[in-house]
Amino acid sequence: MSYRSSLVIAEIPPQPISSTPGEASSIDVVSAPRQRRFKSARLIGEYEKPWIEAWKTGKKGKKLSGRTWDSIIFWVAIFVGFGLGAIMCYISYSAVSNFEYCLVFEDNFEKIDPDIWGYEIQRGGFGTGSFEWTTNDPRNAFVDAEGLHIVPTRTIDDTTITQAQILNGYTLNLTTMGVCTSPDPYNSCSIYSNSTSGDIINPIRSARLTTKGKKTITYGRVEVQAKMPRGDWLWPAIWMMPEDSVYGEWPASGEIDIAESRGNNGDTYAEVGGRDSLISALHWGPISAVDAFWRTDGKHNVRRTDYSDQYYTFGLEWSEKYLFTYINSRLLQVVFVSFEGGNMWNKGQFGQDIVNNSALHDPWSQTGRDNTPFDQAFYLILNVAVGGTNGFFPDQTGNKPWGDKSLSAPREFWNATDLWYPTWGNGTDRGLNVKSVKMWSQGACGSPAH
Fold it and tell me: Which sequence spans correspond to the domains of the chain?
């Protein structure tokens, strides 16, 4: 597109010009020609419109023009399209499972209700090599007007254990204190700090609340309204474990991770995702060496914000035919697993695995159910772990100050306190904050399942 401009000089009457005092002369100013006004090329006045005449003729019952047939075909196609779309939507809606549910419990955390929640207290890392010691201390798990807070703290801040004792010459024995809940008292209930061996007292204390032995479901729904913590190497989790290990030790009896995250800043931990990333997964396998979680995991990232900025609803829907996790609504699914089309042994292709020169034992297929091991009662867990040596925080990523295979990983973590501690939020910002938890069991209340 180009633009044209023109200068029009108005006519000015001749004026006398004096060259010297007493003399007068005049100069005629020549008028510039006026620019021709723009004239539209559009049709003006009366002209023929044959398409209108054809339409009028058609309305009188005479032969319709081709243009009129175009209109008819267009509108018929529109109505047929809407009709087919409605039929497809109805078929899809009819295929969606809409189960009836019975509320097992709803907790808005006016208190930590002992009829719903218990504490798991130990120091052994729960199989992940995490560095915290879990407690029932109200400084690590408490309720206020905002709900439940699970907040990690430094051991030297909340106990009489000194910095020197963390590193050497102190015995922590949760069994003699009468609080350890682990069935493995040697590895999970006691530790002696020794500067020679590199063993240290767990430098962080946190909490782990569960509904084990109190509230469980086999199929149903769970919704947890929560806000994730902020701080390097914090590991919040909302997840489920089997009430009984019917098919064997982990992961043979399964694990359901509804929502996990990392407290690291998403910009500096972008390779695997920080607190801007939400992870869901199922863990399953005949032995831990072949855990097939990578076949059934998912992740959802948010932009220009993260999961510590506001509360989100983290949900699970679980039936005999499928299981999926979601954020805020069932439309935003993080992971979806179908249990149809073959059992979990075949889906995991475990028959092809050889471990320590031996074939694996199939613990599931004898049930005849495709969803085994996810066919038993599971309970809910809320916790904040710190660090770990199982690969959740990959080596050589985000200035990680310890190595997973190091025999002194907790000490390496603790020695880097000046790096990670300033990133931890103040007060409850460093904690998992939970407004409410709801759990439903599939089936009508009063049915045999209840």
Answer: 50-95, 101-442
What's the rounded mean pLDDT across residues 367-374?
Answer: 98
Quick one: residue 356, left, alpha or beta (phi over 0 = left, psi -120 to 50 = alpha)? left
Residue type for position 355 = V
Which pLDDT score is estimated for 58? Answer: 53
Q: If one looks up domain 101-442 in CATH, what number appears?
A: 2.60.120.200
Per residue, what are the HEC states of the chain? CCCCCCCCCCCCCCEEECCCCCCCEEECCCCCCCCCCCCCCCCCCCCCCHHHHHHHHHHCCCCCCHHHHHHHHHHHHHHHHHHHHHHHHHHHHHHCCCCCEEEEEEECCCCCCCCCCEECCCCCCCCCCCCEEECCCCCCEEEECCEEEECCEEHHHHCCCCHHHHHCCCEEECCCCCCCCCCCHHHHCEEECECCCCECCCCEEECEEECCCCCEECCEEEEEEEECCCCCCEEEEEEEEECCCCCCCCCCCCEEEEEECCCCCCCCCCCCCCCCEEEEEEECCCCHHHCCHHHCEEEEECCCCCCCCCCEEEEEEECCCEEEEEECEEEEEEEEEECCCCCHHHHCCHHHCEECCEECCCCCHHHCCCCCCCCCCEEEEEEEEECCCCCCCCCCCCCCCCCCCCCCHHHHHHHCHHHHHHHCCCHHHHCEEEEEEEEEEECCCCCCCC
pLDDT by residue (tens digit) across 23-78? Answer: 444 445 455 566 666 666 676 777 676 656 655 555 555 555 555 777 888 888 99
Which residues are CB-contacts of 58 (< 8 A; sequence separation ≥ 6)? 64, 65, 68
In the numeric block, which tokens belong to residue 102? Answer: 């019975």
| Cβ atoms of 195 and 221 closer than 8 Å | no
The C-alpha torsion from 268 through 271 and 275 to 281, rounded to 10°, is -170
What per-residue confidence (pLDDT) applies to 50?
A: 66
In this predicted structure, what is the pLDDT of residue 297? Answer: 98
State how far the Cα of 107 lies from the Cα of 123, in Å rounded to an integer: 28
- Whether 4 shows a pLDDT value over 70: the answer reads no
Residue type (1 letter), 344: M
